[in-house]
Specification:
about 375 residues, Aspartate Aminotransferase, domain 2, transferase, aminotransferase, 14 helices, Aspartate Aminotransferase, domain 1, about 15% strand, alpha/beta, 7-stranded mixed sheet, 2 domains, 4-stranded antiparallel sheet, 13 strands
Length: about 375
């Protein structure tokens, strides 16, 4: 679906609000460090688990933002992007036949990864329009064969940030069933007046969690593909073995630049989320003026809109294609974020990415207004 929508966007010269990456460059100082690092004669393989300065920066970031005491030598693994980190974490703890609990709508890479491993997904659906977590359904998803859970917070595509109460419930089930959690927290610094709480900070979760971060999301440098995993030493050593057979090492100059970025002051991170919140509000308010209802979006790059008023009986896929062709705006139908082998997915929701320049968002709204009125 992502390929289809991107191809349609090119064909119709559409504004692409389906793609989840910024249309501006990241901080100039980080890019300058990367460029200079290419010339310092350290361009051979980096250490398997990452350059010491980046592992130290990841550990310091965990301490600064969440109070987590992390050993950079044994509890951090640098990966070639967060997607590779996800694969390495799953390969470290999940085997064929194991069950893995997932929450829908979900990032589209999770299910293919589990299929490659031979694991069995057990999906639990958030309930729109408030993205409520169904407690009894979550309890029922855990069982004797549960080996792990993937928890994405802040969440793509829903924009949900899990609350303390929801995290307490999840932690209790994980402890009860002696499971692990792959914590996809790539949008950790992109929240809007809501606090992101890593599951790893909860009681007895330190030894069960693999926490994934992303330089691409934290510094708007998605093409660099630099991720990092924080995990207890016993798990980190196995994650490193999986990383070794897939990639081995990540570009050393980019690692040094990301280390510089992670050490930026709190003002940078506050400014990042504040700027993105303004863009979310610009798009959300514009969609409301056009008659779309939007669902809560407390974090990430994305906001989901209900198309019922405008769809005229079309499904989300049909309406998204119509928008590209008639409005020149590309989105992603939210049904693409559900297990195709599960129950029928909602057909009335589409996802917009608001991590674009304000003038691009304004032009997209003008195009939508022209097509819909």
């Amino acid at each position: 679906m992502f390929t289809v929508m991107s191809q349609l966007a090119v064909k119709h010269d559409a504004i692409n609000l389906g793609q989840g990456f910024p249309d501006t460059e990241g901080p100039a100082d980080i890019i300058a460090v990367a460029a200079e690092a290419l010339k310092d004669n350290r361009n051979q393989y980096a250490p398997l688990t990452g350059l010491p300065e980046l592992r130290e920066a990841v550990a310091a970031s965990n301490k600064r933002f969440y109070g987590l005491e992390i050993d950079p030598a044994t509890e951090v693994v640098v990966t070639s992007g967060a997607t590779e980190a996800l694969a390495a974490c799953l390969m470290a703890v999940v085997e064929a036949g194991d069950e893995v609990v997932l929450i829908e709508p979900l990032y589209d890479t999770y299910l293919p990864m589990l299929k490659l491993i031979g694991a069995v997904p057990k999906c639990v659906r958030l309930q729109p329009p408030h993205w409520e977590l169904p407690i009894e359904e979550l309890r029922a998803a855990f069982g004797p064969k549960t080996k792990a859970m993937i928890l994405n917070s802040p969440m793509n595509p829903a924009g949900k940030v899990f609350s303390q109460a929801e995290l307490d419930l999840i932690a209790g089930l994980v402890r009860e069933h002696d499971a692990y959690v792959v914590c996809d927290e790539v949008y950790e610094h992109l929240t809007f007046h809501v606090k992101h709480i890593p599951l790893m900070t909860l009681p007895d979760m330190r030894e069960r969690c693999m926490r994934i971060g992303s330089a691409g999301k934290s510094f708007s440098l998605t093409g660099w593909k630099v991720g990092y995993v924080t995990a207890p030493a016993a798990l980190a050593s196995v994650i490193a073995k999986a990383h070794q057979v897939m990639v081995f090492a990540t570009a050393p100059n980019l690692q040094r630049a990301v280390a510089h970025g992670l050490n930026k002051d709190d003002g940078y991170y506050q400014g990042l989320s504040a700027d993105l919140e303004l863009r979310r509000d610009l798009l959300r308010d514009g969609l409301h003026r056009l008659g779309f209802e939007t669902l809560p979006a407390d974090g990430s790059y994305f906001i989901v809109a209900d198309i019922t008023r405008h769809a005229q009986g079309r499904t989300d896929v049909e309406f998204a294609k119509w928008l590209v062709e008639h409005a020149g705006v590309a989105t992603i139908p939210v049904s693409a974020f559900y297990d195709p082998e599960g129950p029928a997915a909602p057909q009335n929701l589409i996802r917009f990415a608001f991590c674009k320049k304000p003038e691009i968002l304004e032009e997209a709204l003008r195009r939508l207004e022209k097509a819909l009125t």
